[in-house]
Each structure stands twice: as C-alpha cells, then as structure tokens.
Write a structure and sequence with these properties.
Shape: globular
Number of helices: 13
Radius of gyration: 36 Å
CATH class of the largest domain: Mainly Beta
Structural class: alpha+beta
Helix content: 10-25%
Oligomer: single chain
CATH superfamily of the largest domain: membrane protein fhac: a member of the omp85/tpsb transporter family
Strand order of the largest sheet: 20-21-22-23-24-25-26-27-28-29-30-33-34-35-36-37
Strand content: 35-45%
CATH topology of the largest domain: Porin
Number of domains: 7
Length: 759
C-alpha cells in the first residue's frame, strides 16, 4: 500500500517539478542521520533543476537505511522538505513460555538488544528462529505470538509469547539386520530412544524425539559396531513414520553388520625415532589377534602422543590409520608419528590472580622457565591448581614462540575463599544458631588457612582458633595448630571438651601426602540425668583426658577441590591414645572417594561420585563413650539425625541406652547435573547405605543386658536430592533426604545443609 501511494504522490509531484530550480533542502523528523550526511546521500543540491527521478531515488536511499517507517516530500517555490517518520526504539524485549530461566539461550534466540530499531522483518526472523529451535527439540505445532506495547517515552516493548507444541513420542523403534550385537546395546548411545513405561521417571527413556540428533544417531550405532570389530558395518538413515493426530512416531533402522575384523599387526612409523618402539607398544592397549576396537584405537593414539610429548616434543602429531584385508577379515593398525622438535619453556606468565600471590600459583606448577615441555606435567599442574580451592577455574595456554620454545600462560579466576559470619541462622541438627567468625582458606592470598569461630546454638557451643599452612616456606612440608572448646548436646547427654592439637605433614609425591599430629583434650559429661541411668551405664559418664598421636597418608589426584570431575581421594589414618592420659584405645579410619565426569561419554556435564568410609576402634584399656562411633547425618547416612544410629541396650528401667559402635562403614552414590549454569547451581541425586556394629563392654553387663561378644549390627539406607550452589559466601549444599524403612525409635530428619565443604 505504501508503494502505491508513493508512486501516486511521485506522479502528481512530477507534474509540478518540471523545470523547478531547487532553492533549499530541509530534513525534518530525522534523528539517526545528521543533516550534512543526509545531503551527501542524495544526488542533487541547491541550484540544481529538480526532477521526479532524483527525488524518488533519494527516498529509496533513505528507506534502505532501515531507520524510517515513512518518508514524504513537500515542495514550495523550489524549497524542498523531506519529512521522516522514524521507527520506534525497542527499549525492552522478553520471551515468555520458553527458556525463561536460561538467559544465555534467550539471548541466542532473540538477538535483539535494548536500543535496537523496531523492524517487523527482524521480529519475524526471531519468531522463525524460536519455532526452529522448538522443532529441533521434537516439538511440533508450536505457536509464537509477537506482542508490542507503546511506552510513554515513545519506545516499544516487544514480547514473544511462546506456546510450546507437542513432543513426538517414539512408540516403537526397530532394528533390522542385527545378528552379532544385541540391539539393547544401542540404547546406551542413541539420543532418540523408544518410549518406556514410566518414561518420566529418572533412568527411564521418555521417548521424546530429538530432531537435531537424528542425523548423528546412525553414526553412533556404527561407532558402537566398530568398538566390537565390525569395520564394514553400515547403518542407513532411520525411516520415520509420524502420526500427527496423536504425536507419536515409529522408527526403524536397516543395518548391515558385516564380519568382525581382528588385529593382524600394529605398525609404528616414527619419522624420526625419538622413543623405543617397545616402550611405545607398552602403552598400546589393542592386542594382536583380538577383535578391533575403535575406541581403544583412538585412546592408544592419545597415549602415544602423551608418551612422546612427555619427552619434550610439544608439537608431536600422531596420525592413526587402518589397512583392512577384506578377504581375511583382518586389519593392520598404523600409527604415523611426526615428533617435530623438542620444546623448552621460555617463560611462565601468571594472569588473573588479583589476590593470590604469584609464588602461591607457581609452587603448584610442575613446569617452569627452562624446563623441557612435558604434557603430563602440564595436566598435573592444572589439576594441582584446582585442588587448592583458591580459584573458580584455571587454564594453561601454550603460546608457541618458535619451533623450540613456548610460553605458558596460566590464567586463573579467583574464588571466594573466606567469609565473615555475623548473625544467626537455623541448623538442621543444632536448631537456632548464632555465629561470629572469620575464616579464610587463603588469607591475604598467602595460601595460609586461618579461622576464628564463636558459635552457639540450642545444642552446641564451639569456640575455636586454627591456623594451617599447606606449604611451609613454599616447601613440601605443612603445619597446623588449633585450640578449641566445645559443648555438644547429644540425645542422652552433653559432652564438654577442650583441647589443643598440632601437627606437620609432608608431600612425598604429587598425589601422596603424609601427616603426623598430636592432640590433647579434657572431656567431661553433664546433663546425663544419672538418676534415670542404671549404675552400669553411668560408668560411661566419668570425665577423662585424652592424649593421642595420629599418623595418616592421603592420595589425591582429583582436578578440583570443591567440584572434582576426575580422579579419586583415598586416605588411611591411625590414632593411638593412651600416652599419659585416661583414654586408651586404637582407631583406624579409611576413606575412598571416586569422581567421574560423564560429559565425554554422554555430552552432558553429569558427575558420578562414590564415597566410602570405614572406621574401626579397639579398646586397649579405656574406650570412652564419646570416642566410639555413631552413624547418621551428613558424613554417613543422610535422612537420620546426626549421631543417632548406634548399638544400644535396654536398661533395668526399660530405657534404651546408646553405647556407640566399634566398627562402621558407609557409602554414598551420587549423580550431579547442572541446574542453573549461570548461577553455578547443580542438582544431585543420591543413595546412602551404612552399617555400624558394637557390643556392651563386660563391666557394664547386668541381668538381661547384652554381654561382650553379643554384637549388634545396624544397617540403614536413604535417598534424596541435594542442591549444590557456589554462592558468594562459598559452596553451599542444601539436602533433602528420605530414610528408607526406618525402624521404631529411629530419629529421622529431612533437611540438612553444609557450607564450605567439597561436593
């Protein structure tokens, strides 16, 4: 319509413009283009003879700039006036009904920033982009409506209101031509899977079609076949039949498996021999005369590259190849190795450490100026920095200087390592909590950990000071000192304790550390209502002193302190008490934590964790009640109150008395997945199982009370979810747990939390 009126106006104007001399040119309503620039954009000037072609061309030129919704021209006695109506400015843009909590995804889809010109074509492009994104997720019949609102300041608010369509569910998935492999194996690699009953439940297939992954699924099946030696396997694109009335689909694959190929020979071709072939063959996992495995083949290539790069050949290239014999169904594996030149480190540059001192970063690096390049050292350096807990993330870039030298650029992002606590809160075990404290794991960026804490709740009182240095004078030795006073109100009594501890450790290797410590404490009991305890149970509530020595060793090769994605932590400690004090016992504590990031396998940043603890105590003369083991809570079986699970007996008055255990074992299985990546928030599902055993000491036996040797075994389990959040205060974990089949008398709880602990 605009074009029609423009043509009519131009025709009428032309009948009056013939022979008219231009006396002046003015522009009204123009904001985004200056008067001087506008005059240069037209092909005529003051003094020229005006023509309809020149005016028409000028109008078209201005329209092309994209700033105007309407342009018209007035002429009076040679005075030419261009009138402009500019498009409004978009001051706010929103998307409702889709990706509302994902700012990154919204930005990628909208691609309209505040201050952009209102452009209907651009808005339609956004609408199409949103619908395409929904289609890639397998949703059809999606509707996107564009709503505009004129604001008082003349700008426009644009809202994309999205009504997500329906998911197509894959009701049936068939495979034709399978003989050697069970089609159930495909379920582990396919993105588009057959819908299972209760598909909404965790671990089940929901069957939702993912169109974006459809083209890759045949490649995934073929890759799986090649892991079993089927090098001639062929997988066609799936045939899909969709029922649009019910939003369901049936899919089928046609496969040709072929024969299994076995490894006939492994050939190493070193352009320049830099490493003995036998040493290289030791890192290769493929075996002669066994079925070929494409996954192992790729991993062997990386292992060869690492082995040679560890000799200083930073730019080594390993080109793998296969030579098939289709008649014999064998394959020759060939690794062509081009080592390049040996490389030395020229300089190590630290960047991003606004707080942590350079030397604290450098002492964690296993490569320095003048060192020969080593790929394993580089990886271990990155992991060592991550284990400090001082940084949110670390990267080490390799900057090539020439064929023989490179710089390492260590980029770190500081993490909050300290906090000042002043105020109150509510603890899952202690109730109302008042805390005043200062704690910093990296005080003044020195790597020293120091904390002062004054804490009081309904059930606890803690006053403590601690200081530790993991690297005394940047050496491999560590040291720690602490002094404390504490009062814990358990279910049946209150324990008051004050003591002091000190120790030193040594880093023997990159991953192994040892520790030797001494501690002394005085412990007393109160509020245990001796009048309701039988005389045999009351013997436990005599005050005692403890003087003990602890020896421990720890292996830790994880890649991060708070959120490790690879590696494991194993520790073993022994404590001997009885050195000039009342308590006389021996304790052993064993822990094992394993972490595995699943992103390389499934493409999603899911972390699998397994944590296990085993504790054992032997009475060498006097094992106090407070020094025995109790189960329940954060570090054993969540869903039960802390320290509430322990062997017990029923006294002569019919009261149940906990006596603690001498052995306990617990393990936890967890899967952690990103929830809100922008907020650094994750959600974890877990299952806990624990066991504790113990018996009543002989001198406590009475009537029907169990005697020494009558062991009580207690097993409990639970499941739940935990929210893992890297907050400005530090790592916070909010836990909801549910006890499985609790027994009468068990004290259960649903909510717990921790601050500052590794996940």
């Amino acid at each position: 319509m605009i074009r029609f009126w423009l043509a009519l106006f131009t025709f009428l104007l032309s009948t009056q413009l013939l022979g008219t001399t231009i006396n002046s040119i003015k522009f009204e309503g123009m904001v985004h283009i200056s008067q001087s620039v506008a005059k240069r954009m037209i092909d005529f000037k003051v003094g020229d003879t005006l023509s309809d072609e020149a005016v028409d061309k000028g109008i078209k030129t201005f329209f092309k700039q994209g700033y105007f919704s309407d342009i018209w021209v007035e002429e009076d006695a040679g005075n030419l006036i261009f009138h402009f109506k500019e498009k409004p400015i978009i001051s706010k843009v929103e998307m409702k009904g889709y990706k509302e909590n994902d700012e990154e995804a919204q930005s990628a889809l909208l691609q309209i920033k505040k201050g952009a010109m209102y452009d209907e074509k651009r808005l339609e492009s956004v609408k199409k982009r949103i619908i395409d994104a929904l289609s890639q997720e397998g949703k059809i019949d999606s509707v996107v409506e564009i709503e505009t609102e004129q604001l008082d300041n003349g700008s426009v608010k644009v809202t994309f209101r999205v009504n997500e369509g329906e998911n197509i569910l894959i009701e049936e998935l068939k495979f034709s031509g399978t003989k050697g492999l069970d089609p159930e194996l495909f379920d582990g690699v396919l993105a588009n899977k057959e819908h299972q009953w209760m598909g909404w439940f965790w671990g089940r297939n929901d069957g939702k079609m993912q169109l974006a992954q459809m083209q890759y699924d045949p490649l995934r099946i073929r890759d799986l076949y090649m892991q079993y030696g089927y090098l001639d396997a062929r997988v066609d694109e799936p045939f899909v039949r969709v029922d649009f009335d019910h939003y369901t689909a049936q899919m089928s694959y046609q496969l040709i498996e072929g024969e299994v190929y076995r490894v006939n020979d492994i050939i190493l071709q070193q352009r320049v021999e830099v490493m003995d072939d036998k040493a290289l063959r030791d890192v290769i996992k493929l075996k002669m005369n066994e079925a070929f495995n494409i996954k192992t083949f790729r991993e062997d290539s990386e292992r060869i590259k690492t082995a040679i790069a560890d000799l200083g050949y930073a730019f080594v290239q390993v080109v793998p190849d296969l030579r098939k014999d289709k008649e014999k169904k064998t394959v020759e594996v060939i690794y062509s190795i081009q080592p390049g030149e040996k490389v030395r480190i020229r300089n190590v540059i630290i960047a991003g450490n606004s707080r942590t001192l350079d030397r604290i970063v450098r002492r964690e690096l296993y490569l320095g100026p003048g060192d020969m390049y080593n790929l394993t050292d580089l990886k271990d350096s990155r992991n060592s920095l991550g284990r400090t807990g001082y940084f949110e993330n670390t990267t080490i870039e390799e900057k090539r200087i020439d064929t023989h030298t490179m710089d390492l650029i260590v980029k770190v992002k500081e993490a909050p390592t300290g906090n000042i606590q002043l105020g109150g809160g509510y603890g899952s075990y202690g109730g109302i909590l008042l805390t005043v404290g200062v704690n910093d794991r990296n005080i003044f960026g020195s790597g020293i950990n120091m904390g002062i804490k004054l804490e009081k709740s309904q059930l606890t009182q803690n006053y403590s000071f601690n200081i530790s240095n993991p690297r005394l004078n940047d050496s491999d030795f560590s040291g720690n000192f602490s002094i404390y006073h504490s009062s814990y109100q358990y279910n049946d009594y209150t324990v008051n304790s004050e003591g002091i501890s000190l120790g030193t450790g040594h880093r023997f290797t990159r991953h192994i550390t040892g520790y030797l410590g001494y501690s002394y404490a005085d412990t007393g009991y109160q509020d245990y209502a001796s009048s309701v305890f039988d005389s045999y149970y009351a013997v436990f509530f005599e005050g005692y002193s403890k003087s003990s020595i602890t020896v421990s060793a720890t292996f830790d090769n994880t890649d991060d302190y708070y959120l490790p994605r690879e590696g494991f932590v194993a520790s073993q400690s022994f404590e001997r008490s009885g050195i000039g004090a009342d308590a006389d016992y021996f304790k052993s504590r064993t822990t094992f934590n394993a972490y595995k990031g699943l992103k390389p396998l499934i493409g999603v940043d899911i972390i699998a964790r397994y944590k296990a603890r085993y504790n054992h105590a032997e009475d060498k003369g006097y094992l106090p009640l407070a020094e025995r083991f109790y189960m329940g809570g954060m570090r054993s079986v969540r869903g039960y109150q802390s320290y509430s699970l322990a062997p017990s007996y029923v006294d002569e008055n019919g009261n149940q008395r906990r006596i603690g255990g001498k052995q306990t074992f617990s393990n936890n299985f967890e899967l952690s997945a990103p929830l809100l990546p922008k907020a650094r928030m994750r959600l974890a599902a877990f299952y806990d199982w624990g066991w504790i055993t113990g018996s009543v000491p002989q001198h406590v036996a009475y009537n029907n009370i169990p005697t020494e040797g009558n062991e009580q075994d207690i097993t409990r389990s639970s499941y739940g979810l935990s929210l893992e959040w890297f907050s400005p205060m530090g790592p916070i974990q909010l836990i909801y747990a549910n006890a499985i089949n609790p027994q009468p008398g068990d004290r259960t709880t649903h909510f717990e939390f921790t601050i500052g602990q590794r996940f």
